[in-house]
Amino acid sequence: xxxxxxxxxxxxxxxxxxxxxxxxxxxxxxxxxxxxxxxxxxxxxxxxxxxxxxxxxxxxxxxxxxxxxxxxxxxxxxxxxxxxxxxxxxxxxxxxxxxxxxxxxxxxxxxxxxxxxxxxxxxxxxxxxxxxxxxxxxxxxxxxxxxxxxxxxxxxxxxxxxxxxxxxxxxxxxxxxxxxxxxxxxxxxxxxxxxxxxxxxxxxxxxxxxxxxxxxxxxxxxxxxxxxxxxxxxxxxxxxxxxxxxxxxxxxxxxxxxxxxxxxxxxxxxxxx
Length: 273
Ligand SMILES: [Zn+2]
Description:
By secondary structure, this protein is mainly alpha-helical. It folds into 2 domains: 1-95, no CATH class; 136-273, no CATH class. The protein contains 10 helices and no strands. The chain has helices spanning 2-25, 55-59, 74-93, 97-119, 124-136, 141-179, 199-212, 214-237, 248-260, 262-272. Helix 1 packs across helix 3 (74-93), helix 4 (97-119) packs antiparallel against helix 5 and helix 7 (199-212) runs parallel beside helix 9. The radius of gyration is 22 Å and the shape is globular. The mean pLDDT is 88. The structure holds zinc ion (ZN).
């Protein structure tokens, strides 16, 4: 068992190391294969032994071995989290191909969370991969169809929610604008269209549906709102210019938590309703 967990950790950490490249390069629209890894300060090409997940960062003490500029803590943290995601899932289900797909789906959600946090964007490519891996994470053909079915339900549900919220927000903004019509703002009520929830969130919801099924996805969405609320209130009170909160990290974290504690949550729901 210990060997299995160790293998799972190493596997996760190695993929996490590749994930770091993805997180850095996809938002900049760069190729994830070329050029080879290099230091961002001195551009020196890294030697193979500078690329060992976690260990290199520890042995180099977080510095480039050529120019001694600092290497971001993001690298070891992503590698560690990826390794832990694999270990935790291996502990829960053992090692099998479906578990591998599920772990990959969570790694995509991890990358999406960091990209949303850093750049306020949700790249379609990673979002689609997260969904495909989530659907493939099934133990039978029936399970595959069920995953796809649940993904469609939440993609549809979120689309309706987004449509309704955007309508309400836009309509109230228009009404507000009409009240204060002046000669220079008389055309303002035809604009703007306020969009609630991004398109990216719809795809993340579909992935959640495929991973969790219907009742647990609802729990995860609720949990993510509960987790995000204090952050939103904190930002609202702060003097920071940009007050938009990246929501994907909260969705991803609550999806993982609900996924791990699925049986106690389901038995709680069954006992109470
Ligand atoms: Zn350097």
